[in-house]
Specification:
With 282 residues, this protein is α/β, with parallel strands linked by helices. It is built from eleven helices and eleven strands. It folds into two domains: 124 residues, Oxidized Rhodanese, domain 1, CATH 3.40.250.10; 108 residues, Rhodanese-like domain (Oxidized Rhodanese, domain 1, 3-Layer(aba) Sandwich), CATH 3.40.250. Helix 2 links the parallel strand 2 and strand 3. Helix 5 packs across helix 10 and helix 9 crosses helix 10. InterPro entries: Rhodanese-like_dom (IPR001763), Rhodanese-like_dom_sf (IPR036873), Thiosulphate_STrfase_CS (IPR001307), TST/MPST-like (IPR045078).
């Protein structure tokens, strides 16, 4: 199933009478609480999702900034959103799908069969002249049952070993990969052996690029079908977007949720800097 849906396709789906649950996952670095913007205008019927508290947990620095939520936390949140088994779930944001992809990635691995991301997000919807509504949406609680997220997940030791058997993607901006700047974490640089594929290169005006363009972008860094590929970012949010792009391109991408925030806060983990991957055996 295509993990993306266009604004026009979503409008037709909503008119078709099938149960559709809309999740507004507005979140950005520097503006993690998207609720004020949600209240000002959102897709009709959409429920606001708190990424920090519902799509992540909280722990020690060495756990990273956005550890995965437990099954119980995610299931309780999904029920608050009104989800039932068999529902179609569409997540969107206002940042090119970078936050919505976290909801897609978690829910699809926790047992939701039909979950997609609105390509183009809120701006794609409004560009088509489709309506928004104001205020809060409080749905009748759902009864969905989820399972633990275990497939397609790498831990810190997996990430360390990954370059020896496949391609480890660092999808942060190039200057962070090179170690020239680090606005959030205690150490600048990248995991030795990782190659840089900035997530922005996979987008075009807020939309995911075409499957062919995505395959070409992945191939430029050695990530081709059949090659073991994993991705990390700053805290595990945009790495899920790399997995989303991978599905569109036909490439299976495992996500390292701890990402650089965990790696850089864990004593003894080596760090590479500069434009080259570095030696993963160091």
């Amino acid at each position: 199933m295509n993990p993306l849906i266009s604004a026009r396709e979503l409008a037709a789906l909503l008119d078709g009478g099938r149960p559709v649950r809309l999740l507004d996952v507005r979140w950005r670095l520097g503006r993690p609480d998207g609720r004020p913007e949600y209240l000002e205008g959102h897709l009709p019927g959409a429920v606001h999702i708190d990424l920090d508290d519902e799509l992540a947990s909280h722990g020690r620095p060495e756990d990273g900034r956005h550890p995965l939520p437990s099954r119980e936390v995610l299931e309780r949140a999904a029920r608050r959103w009104g989800l039932h088994a068999g529902d179609t779930v569409i997540a969107y944001d206002d940042a090119g799908g970078l936050a919505a992809a976290r909801a897609w990635w978690l829910l699809s691995r926790a047992g939701v069969a039909d979950v997609r991301v609105l390509d183009g997000g809120l701006s794609g919807w409004t560009r088509e002249g489709l309506p928004l509504e104001e205020g809060d949406v409080v749905p009748v609680p759902g009864d969905i049952s989820l399972h633990d997220v275990t497939e397609g997940v790498a831990d810190i030791d997996d990430a360390a070993a990954w370059p020896s058997r496949g391609i480890l993607l660092d999808v942060r901006a190039a200057e962070r990969y090179r170690g020239e700047v680090e606005p959030l974490d205690p150490i600048a640089g990248h995991i030795p052996g990782a190659v840089n594929l900035p997530i922005a290169t996979l987008l075009d005006d807020g939309l995911l690029r075409s499957p062919d363009a995505l395959r070409a972008a992945f191939a430029e860094v050695g990530a081709t079908p059949g090659t073991p590929v994993a991705a990390y970012c700053g805290s595990g949010i945009t790495a899920a977007h790399a997995a989303l792009a991978g599905v569109v391109a036909g490439i299976d991408v495992t996500v390292y949720p701890g990402s650089w925030s965990q790696w850089s806060n864990t004593p003894g983990r080596p760090v590479a800097t500069g434009p080259e991957p570095g030696d993963p055996s160091v």
